[in-house]
Amino acid sequence: MKLIELKESELRSITLFLIDKKVIFHPKISPNGIPDFTGYHGKKFCLILDRNLVVKILRLVSQGELKDKFDLKLVSSLLLWAELNNIAVTSGLAQMEYSHHHGNDIEASKENNVFLKIFDQYDPTHWLDLALGRRLTIPPVKLEGKIDYKFFMENDHYKMHYLEMLKLSQLYYDNSTSIEQKFESLYQWVFNNILICKYTTFFAALAFGGKSKMFRNQETSFEAVDKKCRNQAWDLTYLSLWSTQYFYEEDSNEVFLFATHDGEMKELFTLSHQESSEIYRNIFGKEIGDRIIDIVSKIYVRRERPKIDSLNLDNMIVKEKDNLKQILKKYYTI
Asked: Which of 51, 81, 247, 332 could disulfide-pair with 94, CB 3.0 to 4.6 Å?
């Protein structure tokens, strides 16, 4: 890494900006978006970027600028912070999402070639000057060759989250069931069929309570709702795949952090790691909240980890998509 002259006031300004915007997360190091590395001396760190941040970074280095000054400050500050703290940065999960969007590896490989070139072509002074507003542009990235990468592959985490969102949507648009019945049906279905994810458990409270952007758009065609299910499933996939890394980090030399500026993802992460049932009372009131808490406690009991079969997940997806279509048809006629 090229040495740079960095004033203490400049470092403080950039650090305070990132702390204020709360973009870096970890269950222990940064449960509320404010990193504290106490007790993690000697570990190697890797920062996982969500899709929105990756898109902004790629636009910056491909075009040499970002029209949005806040986005420019955000991504340049984040890249500088990572370099100064010797933290590796990865766009792997974002490229996995992108490959599934296209159904192949072509576009994701193109993006990954550009992303990896960033760390060869630019030095910390580029990010420092952008973060402090001393410059607004950088030379666009130059690619001399390309490598094909494998991002498009079976992903059981995504399939399970997609199934959860299909089921959640069916229940959301079913006007014949109470809010308690919606939670009971969703949680019982998850318990009977797939792995339990605490991020989905808490997301259901946000969604059924009208606190999620997933159902704010009133478009209720199957295609529109299905797209929402897929998008939300990827948000949950980021968090659950990341959890498979941080869950075992006490026995590992590598620690994975996660960066996002998506307000709902930040709220969901914070709520999930508080692991408090108060969310149900806060959203639905004490009476209904207590009944939901009772439902959760009865359904989510300790069990042996079920075996997940990818082909079975595919078959369930076909079934639940058809169930959603039928629910939406009834929803139109009410």
From this structure: 51
